[in-house]
Automatic annotation (TrEMBL):
Signal peptide: 1-22
Domain of life: Bacteria
Transmembrane segments: none
UniProt organism field: Paraburkholderia phenoliruptrix
Protein name, per record: Glycoside hydrolase family 5 domain-containing protein
Alphabetic keyword roster: Signal
Length: 442
């Protein structure tokens, strides 16, 4: 696999196919957003060749833990040390754990903490070793678009033929788009399928980035309340509030950054993004208090998700409104890295992102977009689908993975789609249906 920074550096030649332009499950509401990736001048970090402790190593009984960067962790009198120096403000620590590519600790009171990518920072979480299984019934998912030529009944038939039980589609409050999704929702309700609706509102308005957090909040609230009011009668209960908002020109400092540090993101425009996210969640809940709202991230964006969850700015300041979601949603294209071993610098040691999300946020995870690259052959894509579905399926009950949604049903060509104008593309389609037929969603 091509390293992430190396690949993203060539995205301009591929017309931004991976970032922004290909994603979303529907049309973009952000007409001012750029789809050209920025390229960092920084060299790829070199990973040290080390022998890390086995995942699951705990101290005690171990005398020390070696992480994947070669740092040695010890515990003495309830205080944690890394290479002989204290790490943040730790005391009364009873357990240090190396698990899923991260260092965790537990105090004598039973509260777990994880060491964030900012080395001195410990964030509260649950025990990462505890298996969590979401409710079955919507694991195999697919992305689509509201402007397809397929009728709603044809989409239902196609999905059932692939053993898919969930479908993601984007919408705004534009009446034409909304009416098309209402028709889909009616058909899905009758068929007993799950429709995940992406509310595709971003941080831009005419003329540029929205003026303030309150303006962004009000816009998010309005569009989400309109969408939820229209779709509630037809059984829609899951809404994704925004698409790749952490990966806009206005919000990420450099598209090649992994996103594992809060400082990877734009401090000035952060309140705008936070406002529109909060507004969409509150707008949905004003109509459907029991609906589930997701917030979407990409690559290794735990720096963004942690800061939003805890009410912090990228500059490290705190005390701001928290963004709390019911479902963590993530995009995991091949170029971003393996969801269960994703790198934080494009080449260095990775960590288990799904385990991190499970322990840190305590809500289900939906991979709302996944695929390989647009330049890959159909045979490569078929093999990739089989491999990824196997990995996702094996982890679904331990990592709280509710659904994995392939991008996309039909892209009009062979770049991403699994069929064209109703005709399957043999290798990816057969790989997908062969797996879903042999592995029940139970």
């Amino acid at each position: 696999m091509v390293k992430r920074r190396q690949f993203i550096g060539g995205l301009t030649a591929l017309a931004g196919s991976y970032l922004l332009s290909a994603c979303g499950g529907g049309g973009s509401a952000d007409g001012n957003a750029s789809s050209t990736a920025k390229v960092s001048a920084n060299p790829v970090a070199k990973a040290r060749s080390v022998s890390a402790s086995a995942s699951g190593t705990a101290m005690p009984p171990a005398a020390s833990i070696t992480d994947s960067a070669g740092d040695v962790w010890t515990l003495a009198n309830g205080v944690i040390y890394r290479n002989g120096s204290t790490v943040g403000n730790t005391y009364d620590v009873s357990l240090v754990l190396w698990y899923g590519g991260k260092i965790w600790h537990c105090g004598t009171g039973g509260q777990f903490y994880v060491n964030a990518d900012v080395a001195e920072e410990w964030l509260p979480c649950n025990d990462p070793r505890i298996d969590v299984a979401p409710a079955p019934g919507s694991f195999y998912g697919m992305n689509g678009h509201a402007d397809y030529n397929y009728t709603p009944d044809e989409i239902v038939s196609i999905l059932k033929g692939m053993n898919c039980t969930s479908y993601r589609v984007g919408v705004t409050d534009d009446p034409k788009d909304l009416n098309a999704v209402i028709k889909l929702a009616k058909a899905f309700q009758s068929a007993g399928l799950t429709l995940l609706v992406l509310i595709d509102q971003g941080v831009y308005e005419s003329g540029g980035v929205m003026a303030s957090e309150s303006v962004a909040y009000d816009r998010g609230y309005s569009i989400a309340a309109t969408v939820a009011k229209a779709l509630q009668p037809y059984g829609v209960t899951i809404y994704e509030c925004g698409n790749e908002l952490t990966r806009q020109d206005a919000t990420v400092m450099d598209f090649t950054y992994a996103g594992s540090k809060a400082s990877d993101f734009n401090n000035r425009n952060w309140p705008i993004m936070r406002g529109v996210m909060r507004g969409m969640i509150d707008g949905v809940k004003s109509v459907q208090p029991s609906a589930k709202c997701g917030i979407n991230f990409c690559v290794a964006d735990v720096g963004a998700s942690d800061a939003l969850w805890d009410g912090r700015q990228p500059d490290g300041s705190g005390g701001y409104p928290q963004v709390r979601w019911d479902i963590t949603t993530w995009h995991n294209y091949e170029v971003y890295g393996d969801l269960f071993d994703i790198g934080t610098d494009g080449a260095g040691p990775g960590f288990d992102l799904a385990t991190y999300c499970k322990a840190r946020y305590g809500v289900p995870l939906i991979v709302t977009e996944w695929n390989t690259g647009p330049e890959k052959s159909a045979s490569y894509r078929g093999t990739y689908i089989s491999d990824r579905l196997a990995a996702f399926y094996d982890a679904r009950k331990s990592h709280n993975i509710q659904s994995v949604m392939y991008y996309v049903l039909d892209s009009g060509n062979s770049t991403y789609g699994i069929m064209i104008n109703g005709k399957p593309i043999d290798a990816p389609y057969n790989a997908f249906t062969s797996f879903t037929s042999a592995h029940a969603d139970t």
